[in-house]
Amino acid sequence: MTQALIDTARRMVADHKGLLAMDESNPTCNKRFAQWGIPQNEETRRAYREMIVTTPGLGESISGAILYDETIRQKTEDGTSFVKALIDVGIIPGIKVDTGAKDMAGQPGEKITEGLDGLRERLAEYFQMGARFAKWRAVIAVGNGIPSRGCIEANANALARYAALCQEAGLVPVVEPEVLMAGDHTLERCCELTEEVLRTVFSQLYCQRVKLEGLILKPNMMLPGLSCPSQEAVDEVAEATVSCLMRAVPAAVPGIMFLSGGQSPELASARLNAMNVRFKSRLPWALAFSFARAIQQPALEIWRGKQANVPAAQRALDHRAKCNRAARRGEYTVAMESDQQETALRGVASLKHAGSFS
Ligand code: 13P
To answer: Do the beta carbons of residue 64 and residue 173 sit within 8 Å?
Structure first.
């Protein structure tokens, strides 16, 4: 493996920074826009992403940004490509390369992520365009009798084949197996299932000769289902998450960068912070963030498609990025939120948006 892959993976977790996921597919981005009455078209999606990539100071907290096929080809109003705008402020461009989670044949209620056909060629093009890492998300639904072994194995195999192709192309794979929050399952069940999923994923990564030093894992935190009556406190979530990861994630992996999965922005920061406060000195890998909703949601609610709202939306985005960087240091406190208006309301609103990401 080239040293360049290892260096990229290390840069992604260096300096207490994390990833900003802005790789919503057009249907998902349109769905988010629809909730706030924002027009759903290519120009509005471009304007929204321009607001994000031109946020002043973003590179101080964000190491990499995950783009979508439409977004990586777009430019700011003044003609600068988003890729260049990011690189200019020290942010590594990345790209979502799966083509979505589709219904699995023979496994009702379960999904298999597609996108392997033609992937070698697509990766070569993205590398040419400046991307240095890629993302693929597998979704594991929890419910009565699911997930099945067939779903876990098929998704793990696809993740490993994608990761091998990425490394061949010089891109760091961000391997994302997401055990969903939807459902009434307990924290304990989330831990058991996530451990099984991660063990299967790492076994497949080994079979496909993926070099662990040159990949990033993007898992879910260990959480009870959204409708589970028992909702554990921040410290219990932190302990359950770290215990599970210690069992299932090899020490050679440079970084674990969590998805937010529909948690409120404040809770996602508090939970990441608790993990770093309590366990950081004993962990072999960096514990960081790769959030979409938990970074973007407050900014989207402020922006609402209006140019006049851009500065305030950018301040909200930068605030969440800073909170999460502080959480990596174990220095996040609720007091950091107090100067931000409507924080509590936002927490509630974000829980309502807990849906799927694609
Ligand atoms: P969320 O942080 O909104 O769950 O997004 C996950 C993701 O995969 C984005 O790339």
So the answer is: no
